[in-house]
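[INFO] parsing input record for TTC12 protein
[DEBUG] input buffer:
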Amino acid sequence: RPPAMLSDADTEADFQRFLRRVDDVTDLLQGLNSPDSAIRAKAIAETEKRLREPGASREEEEEESRTTVNRTLINTSGTARAEAVDADGFLAALEKDAKERAQRRRRNEQLANALKEQGNEAFRAGDFGLAIQRYSEGLEKLRDKQELYTNRAQAYLKLHEYEKAISDCEWALKCNKNNLKAYFLMGKAHLALQHFSEARQCYEKMLQIDPQKENLFKDCVKEAELEEKRVRAEERAEREVQAGNVAALSIQELLQRISSPGQDLLYYTGGIRLLAEVVTNCSGQTFFRTNNGFSILRNETVRGAFCAESRSPAEVELCVSLLLLWRAACAGDEENQRLLLAQPEVSAQLPELLSCGTAQIQRETLALISLYSEHESGRRLLLRQDLSRWLQILMAFVKSTDARAESAMNILSDLAGEERFQTQCQATFSRDVLPLFTQLLVCPQLCAQVCLAVCPGVPSPQLCFPQSFSCPRRALAADLPALLSLTQDGCPDASSPGCQQCVFAVLGLMMNLLLESNGTIQDLAVPISGRCLALLSHHDGRIVTRAIGVLSRVLPASPSAVEEVVRGGVVKKMLKFLKAGGQLTCSYAIQTLSICTKSSRRAQEELLKGDKRFQVLLKLLEAGDELTVGNAAFCLSQCLQLPGAASSLLGSRVVQLLLRQAGGDAQRTSVQQNSAIALGRLCVAEPRHIHQLRKLNGLAILNSSMKYVHST
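[DEBUG] output buffer:
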């Protein structure tokens, strides 16, 4: 007989008695094996007492073998009674009985595993009833096998038997209180029963068990919130229908008329337009959904116009009306968005509509897709589609001179940060996008749009091109000359917002391209750094920040570029930004200074002259960003090689600051290393700093720092 549901009180009580017997026998075994003679004697006495009691039936013995605990009962045969007076005899009997039970358990476990696999095969084939039968047979063999409970619960979910699924999950949790799958499936079952609070509690338990499942937890909670929102909206809508809401009655009537066959295109177009005007709020959207509004394509005339390869003016008008209706029905309603894309004709037809060549249809299709791409939940729905073809289609709209270009680029910008979109589009990027991008460089305004779409993550450029996108990045590097020209004279009106947006976007794309070093970058390093130096006086702070960012990435490729910018006064400019700039600007600026001071003595001298007693660098040593701290320590260590630099720091907090960083626990080892080098050079150049070091008990750190000094 398969294990009964938890609602069976007798089975539950039997299960609890069963567990108590396991604990009793386990304690008895531990006592018989105890090195303490008193405990051992007590265990022997208890064993003799139990041997005098009536033995378990064979049926009970078979049932009790189905547990994970190696429970051993004393054999009640005459031989065992005779040996009971001897402790060694007891242990031998116990060992023999344990082996027999272990053998039975192994046999039952093999049978249970075989039945589990049969159940899994039936589940994969969609025969959920057979799967449940096999899992139940497996539980007959091994009643504490938690996988069988959770697998059976999953099958019950498929058959919408949610109460049974919950019961099986509870049994699984009795076997293992940290069974993640049990809580997950129980949450799904509670959600299906609209037990929203219970579902959330299950998901919270998942997160407690495994904090690394935070993304799964968020997805589950979001699903529960959406479902609760849907249910509440439909309950309100039902109350309004009962109260005779005029809009609800209008929507019902219009949908009935549109579903009637045999009418002409103009009739259906007019009905759809009227429907779009009524579905203007949450209640209207809910009425539309609950009255099967998304089944509108079942009408052959409507479906034919929507899916036609070439359309007459009347069919175009009907198609546009449909798109307007769906926009109205889906705006801000995530459940309606899901239902729309769940229609096979809609998901298959969207890319066809984008490439149909009819501007009016394209505009409305882009507007509908934008409605999805603007929000995370909508993007998830879009990403369930095959978007590899969409990239080429959307990029092609950049050539448009109307609002289609902006709409397409906004969609690309929204999707570009999604890992799945990047993966889907990787194969077609070089073939479909790069040639078009090169063509677009002749037009600054269009280039600005495409740059913003291709590199949405700046100022965190690593988000724009992951490692898997290294080939497109190398290919795009060939367009650096054209990009550079756009920052110089690509715009007829350099002060116009459009031109500034172009420069801003191009600098962002250049930051991405400069993540990889190649011959093109080395050849262009001097003109690029020169142009960036000129942009440091721009009135738009965003452009200034990106120009410094480009400098920090292009200068390592060329010593000549370093010398050029140092002659151009880059040190003085960077000090200015370090005194007044934001965190990102400071990060780029100190990185630029560290590159310059590494190879240019003139840069070191200008830094010493411009930063009196290194007040700026000392302040940066206390920054919260480890990259900034490491670069500040590096700059200081380079400048300490100059005569008088170390002496100028007497009486300052430099020893304390460097000591704190050199002996700290920063994640970046460059922080400790650069601080240790600076500390060593400081004390070598000016021994009077050693007195302060002794007061701070820092000689051990100084000694360890000397290896860095010698190695450099």
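[INFO] Residues 100-229 form a domain with the Serine Threonine Protein Phosphatase 5, Tetratricopeptide repeat fold (CATH 1.25.40.10).
[INFO] shutting down worker
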